[in-house]
């Protein structure tokens, strides 16, 4: 217990002071820092909960057990643990040697800089530690009133759809954009202009998914699209917009006998007017079976997911950025020979490659280094045409850390050279084994981007909140070439049903054909039917 | 100057990791309980002889969510510079997606929990709330055995009973003493010996008289059911008795005592006279397994197909048998739960020390066992 009260503590303080100065000298702009010295199990606990003050649930217990075991067996070490708050908390394991702490401090300062400056974090709640503590207290309170089991069962259900939110919208506070707009249902508007339903459908879907935009905030832009379609006499209708197999929606306008198509013909009103990405919030606002405490729990989960989302979406960048800087800072420190060797070992562990996954620390680092290199030494043509100057690499990577997320980072800056240099490949299941299927540069890049799209989770939207005009919920998986695991569909739909209180459906694509999974309590099991 | 602080708060309040971990463990146990029906007739459990640990996938413990089918997904990995398309990274394993590769959890799609379940885990879940009705101390069972219990340590004793650990410890302690020689040496004074005392133990014994119809109508499936049933019955009785023996009586028109192997394997053709088995069981309680020394548990597995004229005799003999037993049972295997004339005859027996259960298929095994042992007196029969 006394370990950090004496000379060691002073040494650590000195080191942190020095490292912070160097970091500032490099231009890193971080939050005030709070370093906490903690024992291993607390470290593991914070790691598995994501936040020291978070509510309790067996999901976290499972993660804790796994991490603790792996830690106890010496299989893994949590090197760094840093919380996106202002002030920014960084946790240091009490058994760390001074040198390890130096590396970690250098690393987390860059994380703190990233949290503070990356645009995707601009909306996050920097007092989240307190908010989560309050939320945890409320959940404890509900547990006392309604019983542990009931709260746990409800959380099981809510957590099953927690990824399906619209992370950057203010809809949780202000309501959905389409709820507050004066003309909430533009479908009506467009129909007034007597555009065929087909054209309208296509224009909406096309505009939306071509750009990945989700909410009605840019509805005016899609309306422009619709007008364009009108001008072209609906030329976009059939061909261009339907490049992908998309369940249900495409054909619904033509009414091939499914319930919703019939419903569509009788009324143009859609609910929600466009596919709604925030499934969690939609259910929270429109389910008719939720008690007030349950809505509160959903709000808590929604807020927490929204807080974690930017971190999920910038994993490669964030770790790459921190690794880039801990290397620069450590080099600037005056290390002894033994320390240099020890540091090199730790650094090698952090950036170790893996045959079956991508190490975000390494990949991010290499991309940032490649950007710097390229902008330090522009070609003659780049200087002539784009006015680039020599030596602008550092400036450029600061700009990149500000405006990109993993998907745009990979798309814009993962060069062929980096892919070749790191020997990246695509692998998949082929003939009962995991095999390298291709090393084609474009395919590797595409696979990486797909794996990072929507935080790596399948995109699920609310397509119809009044399916078949029976108040049923129709979810749709936006199929991008990767199928869902049907066993998990069968397990998740009953949870969604529990939250929605009425029959629920999920459209997706299996083996190239659109299918719909349905669950209602009378049948008591998930059924599957082909559609379209 | 710098905006930073180092602190060392007391984080000991943050122990929820352990409580949530305990909750997760509890969920695993619940999952075992939920799967009991399947587990208890799982051959790998029954034939494990208590040694093997069974691994069962517990899907209930996955974090449920919509997720990609990892086996139909493209993943990205990194080579050492010489990777080529077609290189194998690992095998994909069985249908469950739990393949084996470079290391556990390294390859995609392996998030399905496989929980190693030992026989004890299953027993703990299965025997919860069970009790053994009418457990009796048998007078003559006392002083059945004398056991040597090593429960003392002395300085003198037989060299073969030397307590090596204590001896070394003493030697270490002595040589570490400041006044000592600092050389490690075991002196005669360091020697410690384990000694024993004789204890008289009460030996409780039980015998299961397993009777089964081996006529042609009892197929392999029915016998598997019976085997699983007797397996768990015996495991349970072992909790109460040092000795829980099983004798097997196979019968068709006549009964004989057979080996376990014979009991569960061979089928014989011909009609069935149930009373023959009851008579033999009764004889056994008079000769080898007297009620003065043994707790007796006769149990009869049959399809109920008996020669009708035999029923009154069967009733009479079985009633006598029950009088000498702690608890007797009759299970009728019938896919359509159709009560035979034998069932109807035996229904007249008072239910205090007699349980009658209908087994349609293997999912009825658990209710059948529970009917026998679950302490609550109200259970559905048939």
Automatic annotation (TrEMBL), chain A:
Pinpoint the SpoVR-like C-terminal domain residues: 458-509
Pfam families per the UniProt record, alphabetical: SpoVR, SpoVR_C
**Region (Disordered) residue spans:** 233-270
Q: Which residues form the SpoVR protein-like N-terminal domain?
A: 10-455
Where composition is biased (Basic and acidic residues), the residues are 241-270
Protein name from the UniProt record = Stage V sporulation protein involved in spore cortex synthesis (SpoVR)
Origin species: Candidatus Carbonibacillus altaicus
Automatic annotation (TrEMBL), chain B:
Q: Which InterPro entries match?
A: Spore_YhbH, UPF0229, vWFA_dom_sf
Q: According to its UniProt record, what is one Pfam family this protein matches?
A: DUF444
Record's protein name: Sporulation protein YhbH
Kindly give the SUPFAM superfamilies that the UniProt entry links to this protein: vWA-like
Q: Where is this region: Disordered?
A: 1-24, 72-109
Q: Which NCBIfam families match?
A: spore_yhbH (TIGR02877)
Q: Which domain of life, per UniProt?
A: Bacteria
Organism of origin: Candidatus Carbonibacillus altaicus
